[in-house]
Each structure stands twice: as structure tokens, then as C-alpha cells.
Amino acid sequence: MYTRKNQRNLTSSEKRRLVGALLGLKRSGRYDEFVRMHGEYYVTDAEDRPRAAHMTPSFFPWHRRFLLEFERALQKIDDGVSVPYWDWTTDNSPTSSLWADDLMGGTGRRSDRQVMTGPFAYAGGQWRINARVSEGDYLTRDLGRPRDPVSLPTKSEVAEALDDPAYDAPPWDSTAATGLRNRMEGWSAGGPERWRLHNKVHRWVGGLMTGATSPDDPVFWLHHAYVDLLWTRWQQTHPASGYLPRKRLPESDPQYGRVFAADDPMPPWDVKPSALFDHTRWYHYA
Ligand SMILES: [Cu+2]
């Protein structure tokens, strides 16, 4: 049992240890295995394959397990480390301390979006991008996308998503109009708000964070820890609601065999979403 803290409350020694563990994991090659796994499970609902991680009800439990595995790997390097969370409704500017040299480093330079500051700058020699969908060996960012500004989601947008008493809704994909899962994952049918909440944060960071290998940017983990925290808040607010679909969908359902009901084992760990509903045996949020 350990604590996941708000990144803004980390002491300088906690920041140093977190960065050290991230760089150590990268050095060992293990970090890039997580990046590749995320890319491999980036299955969209345009495909017929099962979707465990994205555009799917198991978006929350799959990422919870993904973060837990990652955190265990970090803790093998330094057992005092945990994944902090980034509350992007509050720390919502490129000048937030999150982006300082002692934590994530800053935005990319204008010409090629290459991150030039902090521990993950290519020139530092410790953060080479190996698993990627785009060109370049270096981490890229475009915080806030100044040329065509995008803003981070607000507290009221989060509150609106958390207010929905249903966990998810048919058709259980990126077009579900209601339900916590798609409101929070943030797909919408079109219009100016094509990317909302979780998705919008990926877009705001820009660069590698917008693609299937988004964990190439270590801020991925801090973002997803906050998404995980928001799931716990929804659970507390709606104790009578639960994960949906509860039972496997009938064969007649177009999503049959493509989404995971509460007790359908999810790859690659063969773990049921229901085994991940209660996070309190592992960690709590401070
Ligand atoms: Cu994400």
C-alpha cells in the first residue's frame, strides 16, 4: 500500500527519485516495452479485433493495470517511488512547475518540436525514442499548441462527466453519447470539440503524446494517474452504479467479441476488469 501524490506536491528529492527511476527503466530497455505494448493495444473501433484499451468500456481497468505494471517496474529500481498524478484542471499552463527542468522538462522548440530542456531532452543522452509512429529519435511536445491554441479541460467539464451515473452505454465504442467512459475518454462525433477530456490532454501536450506510442512522453503516466483518480471519484459518487457491460454481450450485438464485460479476461494479462475495480489494496490518492 502506497500513495500516489499530486505532482505539484512532490518534494525536490521525490522528483529526483522519480526522474532517476524513469531514466533507469529507460536504460534497461523495459520502458520501451511499455511503449510498444501501448502501441500494440491501440486498436480503434474501425477494426474488428477485440479492443481492450481504447474506444472501449475497459479503457479504465486496462489502463489501471498498465499503470500498476509500470509502477511495479519503477519500484524495482527505487521502491520509494510511485506514479504521481497531474491535475490538469489546476496545473493548466506551460509554465506550471510540472514542466520545469527538475521534472518533465518543457515544450518543444519551434522548428521540429524537439524538447530541449529537462531530463528527457535528447541532448542529455538519456532519452532516445525507440518505439514510435513518427520520425525522429527525440521527444516532441507542443504545449498548448500556440499557433492554433487548445486549452486543457476545465473543472466543470470534468464535473459534467463525473455526474453521469452510467459507466458506459451502447454501442460501447467511440460514438457512445453518454456514460462516464466515453465522456472521460473523450471521443465525440464531430464538431469543434472532437477531442475532449482525456483525449484533449493528449492533444494539448502535442508531439508524441498524440499518437499510439504516447507513453514515449513520461507525462503520459502522470496524465493517466489523474484519469484513474477520476474513475475512483466517480465510483465514490455513484456507489450503486458499476462497470458496464456487466455480462458478455449477446452474439447478435455488433460489439460481440470486441469489448470486455466485467468478467472477461483482458489481454495481455488475462485479468478481468472486475479484478481492478478496487484500487485501495494497492494505493491511494493523496
Ligand atoms: Cu491516454
Task: List the total number of helices.
Answer: 7
- Sheet having the most strands: 2 strands, parallel
CATH architecture: Orthogonal Bundle
Q: Give the distance, in angstroms, between the N- and C-terminal Cα atoms.
A: 13 Å
CATH fold call = di-copper center containing domain from catechol oxidase
* Small-molecule binders: copper (II) ion
Number of strands: 2
Radius of gyration: 18 Å
Outline, from the CA principal axes? globular
The total domain count is: 1
What strand line-up does the widest sheet have?
1-2
Structural class: mainly alpha
Instruction: Flag low-confidence runs.
Output: none
Task: List the main descriptive attributes of the protein structure presented here.
single chain; 286 residues; mainly alpha; di-copper center containing domain from catechol oxidase; two-stranded parallel sheet; 7 helices; 31% helix; binds copper (II) ion
Report what the structure shows.
The protein has 286 residues and is mainly α. The chain has a single domain (2-285), classed as Orthogonal Bundle (di-copper center containing domain from catechol oxidase). It is built from 7 helices and 2 strands. It has helices at residues 12-28, 30-40, 59-77, 155-162, 180-185, 197-205, 219-237; strands at 2-4, 283-285. The protein has a two-stranded parallel ribbon. Helix 1 packs across helix 3 (59-77). The longest helix is centred in the first third of the chain and has 19 residues, at 59-77. It is globular and about 55 Å long. The chain starts with a strand and ends with a strand. The relative contact order is 0.17. The mean pLDDT is 96. Copper (II) ion binds at residues 198, 202, 214, 224.
